[in-house]
Amino acid sequence: QVQLVESGGGLVQAGGSLRLSCATSGRTSSTYAMGWFRQAPGKGREFISDITWNDGITYYADSVKGRFTISRDNAKNTVYLQMNSLKPEDTAVYYCATKPGRYTNYDSWGQGTQVTVSS
């Protein structure tokens, strides 16, 4: 079992930046990829980005491409999400998650961190 703890959320004005962190512990050796998702009030959970743990291959949703950057520090078992040019529609609870294989579902989740972007 992998445990994940997100941090770095907060209140920021439109156009500002935040960096989220997700620290992992537990069976991290079985992690294939780590991802970031978000859920806005009244909406479903949305995939934002993920990164493969060994190769560092990244994927982004179109809604954040060019504004958000995912990275990882294998030594610290931590993944980051640098969010620039934030918009009010980026307001959501942000979650990190891990999956054990390329074609598996994300099966370990953090508790989430709130990001609020004011206009």
Indicate the proportion of strand residues.
over 45%
Query: Which residue ranges are poorly predicted, with pLDDT under 50 across at least 5 consecutive positions?
Result: none
Helix and strand sequence: EEEEEEEEEEE
How large is the count of helical segments? 0
Structural class: mainly beta
Question: What's the number of extended β-strand segments?
Answer: 11
Overall mean confidence score, pLDDT: 95
Form type? globular
Distance between the termini: 40 Å
Cα Rg: 13 Å
Biggest β-sheet strands, sense, barrel: 7 strands, mixed
Helix content: under 10%
Short summary:
With 119 residues, the chain is mostly beta strands. Helix content is 0%, strand content 55%.
Tell me what you see in this structure.
Helices cover 0% and strands 55% of the residues. The chain is mostly beta strands and 119 residues long. The strands form 2 sheets. Strands 2, 4, 5, 6, 9, 10 and 11 form a 7-stranded mixed sheet that branches. A 4-stranded antiparallel sheet has the order 1-3-8-7, with no helix packed on it. A hairpin with an 8-residue loop joins strand 9 (92-99) and strand 10 (108-109). 33% of the residues are buried. The model has no long low-confidence stretch (mean pLDDT 95).
